[in-house]
Write a structure and sequence with these properties.
single chain; alpha/beta; globular; 8 helices; eight-stranded parallel sheet; 257 residues
Length: 257
């Protein structure tokens, strides 16, 4: 999967302070992962890792398929929530009767719990997209991976009022066997994508639409963004893409769990 390096600078400013506090807290807090090497028993987190009930482990493989079958399409929205763009994306989805999966960055969720709750109330699903959106996650230690995944899970779950993320998407697709196993042990199915709209590069609304039309035969999971900069092109592209997908006989679903 494509590694998105070009859009990451804004996270350094946004979550730098939050990450520093979180990393320090992770060393001492009771919910930090107590995780072993791949091949050892499943990574564990204490019961206080996130609010809510028991966790049911899920498959560790990276999912792309839609629960709507061969004609299904999964709309996935990354990097938010954002107070400017997430409400506009939610409006477009509502107008078209479409449910989506929102892959949230932990500090963003923590900063905007009202938006996380709006996403949940509208019937969309949540996805863990780590704390600092480090696209080199696959080169980092298991302790770092654990902190990124579990801290974000906690932040998102608390912001939502107790609704857990159902998926884990590694920044830039930087999955590892360890991170997939850890996420799956927490009930979060590793989530990939098939159509990278590259909307974060601001290529223009026409280019975003054209990418979807060209690459849709390659698979059902589409990647868009609702944070990280001006997302007006994404909002307008969704206004055109969602009706077009319906015209193609596509059904909107969620990634298989």
């Amino acid at each position: 999967m494509t590694r998105h390096g070009a859009k990451r600078g804004w996270y350094g400013k946004l979550v730098g302070a939050a990450l520093g506090v979180t990393v320090l807290a992770a060393g001492a807090s009771v919910w930090t992962a107590q995780a072993g090497a791949v091949g050892s028993p499943s990574p564990r987190a204490s019961a206080s890792a996130t609010p809510g009930g028991d966790v049911t482990p899920v498959d560790v493989t990276i999912v792309h398929a839609s629960d709507k079958g061969e004609r299904g399409v999964n709309i996935t929205i990354d990097d938010g929530p954002d107070p400017v763009w997430t409400p506009q994306v939610l409006d477009v989805l509502r107008e078209n009767g479409v449910k989506a999966t929102f892959c949230m960055v932990g500090p963003q969720a923590q900063a905007h719990p009202d938006l996380v709750k709006k996403v949940v109330a509208a019937g969309h699903r949540l996805c863990d997209h780590t704390v600092s959106h480090d696209t080199a996650m696959d080169t980092k230690s298991q302790a770092f991976q654990s902190q990124q995944i579990l801290d974000a899970e906690r932040m998102i779950t608390e912001a939502s009022g107790g609704v857990r993320p159902m998926y884990y998407r590694a920044p830039g697709g930087a999955f590892t066997p360890y991170s997939r196993k850890l996420a799956a042990s927490r009930g979060m199915r590793p989530l990939g994508w098939n159509v990278d709209t590259k909307d974060f590069e601001l290529p223009g609304t026409d280019a975003i639409v054209a990418t979807v039309e060209r690459e849709l035969p390659g698979g059902p999971t589409l990647l868009f963004h609702d944070a990280g900069g001006d997302r007006s092109q994404t909002v307008e592209a969704l206004r055109r893409i969602l009706p077009w997908l319906k015209e193609q006989g596509r059904s909107f679903g969620f990634p298989v769990r």
